[in-house]
Write a structure and sequence with these properties.
Shape: globular
Strand content: under 5%
Number of helices: 20
CATH superfamily of the largest domain: MFS general substrate transporter like domains
Mean pLDDT: 80
Order of helices and strands: HHHHHHHHHHHHHHHHHHHH
Number of strands: 0
CATH architecture of the largest domain: Up-down Bundle
Structural class: mainly alpha
Distance between the termini: 15 Å
Length: about 525
């Protein structure tokens, strides 16, 4: 037995399955919660830290970028250091970052605590969770149920995050949210003390430092290039092309390096042979699509609610409550039906239903929308995500032998977080592009604005455009002593262009989901069978 398998198996035998799931689930919950919770507190963070929506959007994307970039090295360190030690160290680092963020005086310190410390901590603890589960629950039915529980916890964190953080941000401050995470981390560390780690073995794998650097740099360049799409109007497409191209080249170099190490008989961060498994080839991009939809929608919808409709964070959170309930119920129902119906159709159908839900929201919302307007769409989103989560995770994890669980968990979680980062970044890029286009065209067509004013306004818009509420724009124009007639005209233009941009960004997220869902039709059918036991 390898160290990875021995670590996970020994860990699982020392505690009850319920206790193990509780400890791992709490860690997964705060990680998922943290990824989406701040979406509803964007306006509060902007005011408190004297920054912009674009700055907070960058922090949201950078947090998931750090996790995506370091998941693969973090997973391998679980084999080198042992699962318990890696998990506990990751949780401790995560808690340190939460404490720093709760005390941050500006956006820079917030990025240090939230994006860097919490992101690196997540890269250590999350792969350990998904490497332990298949070894702790070896029976296929029990494993699917364990993934369903973890999927429900993941979904609950994603859906309850806006509600919990909304309440905290409205009645206290967003800082309390991070302070509460620090307290939860102390509880998790206390629970982990009951897990006795396995004895150290002599044949621990060598850590591939160069491979770790190549994977982190490659993913970092790739997502950074996508983030540059926000600045296409001022910088052009070249930064996107150069950075994305460089990222792809570095990742190809990473794969070549892994093949070379394998041929030399040395340990790798990732066995390249895994990428030839059909379930992995399809499961990884499907995980990107799923997280792209979740993160893109959970970024755009709260911004629309708060900027266009004036919702308080708590109201924004309440609109996602149906999403939470549907997600939890469907994840448990799906776990029971998967062995008979197969994973393929649940993954495909779930992605379609999620896309329909997002499309319904994009079609229904306008400036007269209430919280009830979002009910049909968010309910469908919850149903769809609940259908996809457990089957997709089990599909990827069960496709490789037990001794490769650390490697596949790192790769899969990296793709999950890559999809999350891309969802926020691309949705924001589309929002900005449509906003600039809309404002520019409306200003040029307005008879109430003089030719000189049109030239000045359009030039300013192309240099610096951000999503603003009508009240924020009025305050800004008043500070510049803008005539009242021009102020009223510009506020009206901003409102129309902003709302159209937000609806377009949301529709784009739904469209990507529809396109990606058809990858699910290419999955091998397993209606008559059940997930293969690890190692077969």
């Amino acid at each position: 037995m390898t160290k990875a398998a021995g670590d996970a198996g020994t860990t699982a035998r020392k505690v009850s399955p319920a206790f193990l799931l509780a400890g791992l689930g709490m860690a997964q919950f705060i990680n998922t919660y943290d990824t989406v919770a701040m979406n509803v507190a964007v306006s509060k963070v902007v005011q408190d830290l004297h920054t912009t929506v674009t700055g907070v959007q960058f922090a949201l994307a950078f947090y998931t970028l750090v996790m995506a970039a370091f998941m693969i090295p973090g997973a391998k360190l679980g084999d080198v250091w042992g699962k318990k030690r890696t998990f506990t160290l990751g949780v401790a680092m995560y808690g340190t970052g939460a404490l720093i963020t709760s005390l941050s005086p500006n956006l820079t310190v917030m990025i240090l605590g939230w994006c860097v410390c919490e992101g690196l901590g997540s890269a250590l603890m999350i792969p350990s969770i998904y490497a332990i589960l298949p070894a702790a629950f070896k029976e296929p039915e029990q494993r699917v149920k364990a993934f369903a529980v973890m999927g429900a916890i993941t979904g609950a964190g994603a859906a309850l995050g806006p509600l919990i953080c909304g309440i905290i941000s409205t009645y206290l401050t967003w800082r309390v949210s991070f302070a509460a995470e620090f307290v939860v981390v102390l509880v998790i560390i206390g629970m982990s003390l009951r897990i006795k780690g396995p004895p150290r073995v002599e044949d621990r794998p060598e850590f591939d430092t160069l491979g770790a650097a190549l994977s982190a740099v490659g993913i970092g360049l790739l997502v950074t290039g996508i983030l540059q799409a926000n600045h296409v109007s001022t910088k052009g497409f070249w930064p996107v092309i150069v950075l994305v191209g460089a990222g792809v080249l570095v990742l190809l170099g990473f794969l070549y390096w892994q093949v070379r190490r394998k041929r030399a008989g040395r340990s790798q961060l990732m066995d390249p042979a895994m990428l030839r498994v059909r379930q992995v080839q399809l499961g990884l991009p499907l995980s990107v699509v799923m997280m792209f939809m979740m993160s893109g929608a959970l970024f755009v919808i709260p911004v629309f609610q708060q900027m266009a409709l004036g919702f308080e964070p708590v109201t924004t959170g309440l609109t996602f409550l149906p999403n939470t309930l549907a997600m939890i119920v469907l994840s448990q129902v799906t776990a029971r039906l998967v062995p008979r119906a197969g994973r393929k159709w649940f993954v495909f159908s779930g992605l379609i239903v999620t896309s329909v839900g997002i499309g319904v929201i994009a079609a229904m919302i306008d400036t007269s929308s209430t919280a009830w307007t979002f009910l049909p769409g968010t309910l469908l989103m919850g149903v769809g995500i609940g259908m996809v989560m457990a089957p997709l995770q089990d599909l990827i994890q069960s496709s490789v032998p037990l001794e490769k669980q650390s490697e596949i968990s790192g790769v899969s979680r990296s793709f999950f977080n890559l999809g999350s980062s891309l969802g926020t970044a691309i949705a924001g890029a589309v929002l900005t592009a449509v906003l600039i286009s809309g404002i520019t065209s409306m200003v040029m067509a307005s008879p109430a604005i003089t030719a000189d004013q049109k030239q000045q306004i359009t030039a300013a818009v192309r240099v610096d455009t951000t999503t603003m509420s009508d009240e924020e724009l009025k305050e800004l124009l008043d500070q510049k002593n803008t005539p009242q007639e021009l102020t009223d005209t510009l506020v009206g233009i901003n409102s129309k262009a902003r709302n159209r941009a937000l609806k377009t960004a949301l529709a784009m997220v739904a469209l990507i989901g529809f396109i990606g869902a058809f990858l699910g039709l290419m999955l091998p059918g397993d209606r008559q069978g059940r997930p293969n036991p690890p190692g077969t």
